[in-house]
């Protein structure tokens, strides 16, 4: 029998023991030798943080950057050495087939020693022995949450290197989208002269390219560009497999802590088995790591099968029947008895019945290898659970039952059923809104009438009110939008973030006031924008019978315009179906209340200013994001209000001609999430001797600061800096 490292993981575990011995051997663990070997990245990080708190900004930038670059090189070197040493010692394995079986174990140890020596030599070419030791869990957390970039953005701000500060801030924010201070900092950077849009780059983007491809594929599907969708889904599948292999290689190469003495006496083989199972568990958990977006808590379940499902449909619609058959047969490796997939396969093979080659096409080779390897690893892991008291959490829903030992099947079935129920939860009879708001309260503003309520809107906690604005008020705000929106909050007439067929402009209350102070718009029009928001707040607070004090979360005047010449054959939406305070997952009908959703939002409202455009209708939808439950046609003074949670998915149909303008508002009961921009505008008006309606305010927050840790946010106030927010969302 020929033995390779990928097929006998129990003995591979000895690699850890030898590797640990080799890298810690020698005369001391100096952090950096005269030969120029790299020091531990955690040492650079500690030095950088110490310099940061001493306000030694030059040294802080130097060491923080060194920590990031050294860690990046460590990961790359591990992968390089993994590949270079993959076949080291294989000649000794081949001899075992011809020798006495009683010497087989010694031969295995000889092979492992050769492999470990190769790894030690390869890694030792670039790194000092100390740099190869495990780092603490705290350091792993710091880099996992991208906290070095949190320090760097302030450091570069102090050094007046604004482009670098913006890049660091953006990189941190991608993985921490609920960090309010960083959101505000980013908006400030966008308004600093000399900071260009290309400065806002994710420096960790290389590890996330499969998500860019995933989003590009979804976008191509939404515009029915099936040829492009096929291309992007193939790229996404390949990149997902590549990132998974990268993660698995890191599991093999990273240094392991060898326990000094376990609670129970174990022999060499028992320890080797435990380390081996830990290695396999690490490799299996790469599925979860690769399928979790930066800044998200939960992984996308069945991430790879999901991509294959999208790919075979796109291939069929693009006319690539052979490719569709190949992809569908790959998907069936995950779920061999899935009725929908089997029906689709029958359809595809009937469609290509004259093409024998297409009919006989098998699954993708790389997917077949992926499945085979995963099943081998799962068998060993479940064996360890049943016989060695090993703890393992299977990351896959597709694991077949026959992999699980009989003694574990009852528990396994119960857990799997529970997970499936959580994911399905679909066939609901009636949505229940647990927000604590109840529609049906009084409408306290004279001239405002209820046009549509829950019953007419086929839902819960929804309302359409008319008469909120007069035509002259609509005209004034439209004029404000015309003059100022293109100079507003950063979109500046660019293509919409939701569709390439529309332009998007936005304006906040604070920005309107600043433009008024510069003489670009009328002060009265800027104040009208503020006053309209107060009227909407009164209406929402009363009609939905708010159970606690209501605060503005964000106010945004938005206009979206159809781009001439880009409307033919259009099938996308101006704003896809979404929920305002959670992440909607139509496939499972779940709505995950976690970042990057604005989880603090409680009530949503959109006040329309015009109707001289085509399309642009607001609609409520079911959680499947396909079934429309109610449509609302915009017109001057019409307000749509609703609770921000999962009972109210909504979207906007394509604007195919003209310009659609509306004032979008969100409200929260959480004081710490109130709109600081709005309060700053009120303070500026008050300083000019003009009274405005103001909410009770708590302690302010500075516009630019580091939270000193990714786990907390500071509360110091800085009056000499501009406060901004960046909650760019609209209805």
TrEMBL record:
Bias (Basic and acidic residues) ranges: 691-702, 713-731
Keywords, comma-separated and alphabetical: Dioxygenase, Endoplasmic reticulum, Glycoprotein, Iron, Membrane, Metal-binding, Oxidoreductase, Repeat, Signal, TPR repeat, Transmembrane, Transmembrane helix, Vitamin C
Keyword Oxidoreductase annotated: yes
The protein's Enzyme Commission number: 1.14.11.7
Biological process terms in GO annotation: collagen metabolic process
PANTHER family in alphabetical order: LEPRECAN 1, PROCOLLAGEN-PROLINE 3-DIOXYGENASE
Protein name: procollagen-proline 3-dioxygenase
